[in-house]
Specification:
CATH superfamily of the largest domain: Winged helix-like DNA-binding domain superfamily/Winged helix DNA-binding domain
Number of domains: 2
Distance between the termini: 38 Å
Structural class: mainly alpha
Number of strands: 2
Strand content: 5-15%
Shape: globular
Helix content: over 70%
Order of helices and strands: HHHHEEHHHH
Radius of gyration: 18 Å
Length: about 160
């Protein structure tokens, strides 16, 4: 197989990957807005804060959401203005804050759990065996992507 044939097939894969991911995210965004008045990243932030075992700081959120720290700080501030989260000063360090859910944030978290578009798409499009294989492949790709991010952009991903 020639190098340009491999590149073409790889490019076809990435185009399909990107289009599929965008379509699934867009379907989820639409239903999240209608159901819980949240964006996808807001729903992810609420879920991470809710399910986290330890204190959640903006830097922890940046790493988990694969976003820049200043982007997460802005997101947290906007969500705080909407009453979804609260920034609490960490008594151990003056400049450190923890992010916690408010009652309104808890309610939004529960509502977003009812959004079923991605699950419905996945459940009806593939078999259980195919879904298990896809989950395995996506896990491998995610781990490698995080390695590449860490190699090329150490902070905040260290």
């Amino acid at each position: 197989m020639k190098a340009d044939e491999t590149t073409g097939k790889g490019n076809d894969f990435w185009v399909l990957w990107d289009r599929t991911a965008h379509a699934v995210r867009r379907a989820r965004e639409i239903e999240l807005r209608l159901t819980a008045d949240l964006s996808g990243v807001e729903a992810s932030l609420l879920a991470f804060v809710k399910e986290s075992k330890g204190p959640v700081t903006p830097s922890v959120l940046a790493r988990q959401l694969h976003r820049e720290p200043h982007t997460v700080s802005g997101l947290v501030s906007r969500m705080e203005k909407r009453g979804l989260v609260k920034k609490e000063k960490n008594l151990g360090r003056r400049n450190l804050v923890r992010v916690t859910l408010t009652k309104k944030g808890e309610e939004a978290f529960k509502k977003q759990g009812k959004v079923s578009v991605p699950s419905t798409i996945m459940l009806t499009a593939v078999t259980d065996k195919e879904r298990a294989a896809l989950t395995d492949y996506l896990g491998k790709l995610h781990r490698r992507a995080v390695e590449v991010i860490r190699e090329n952009q150490p902070l905040p991903y260290e």
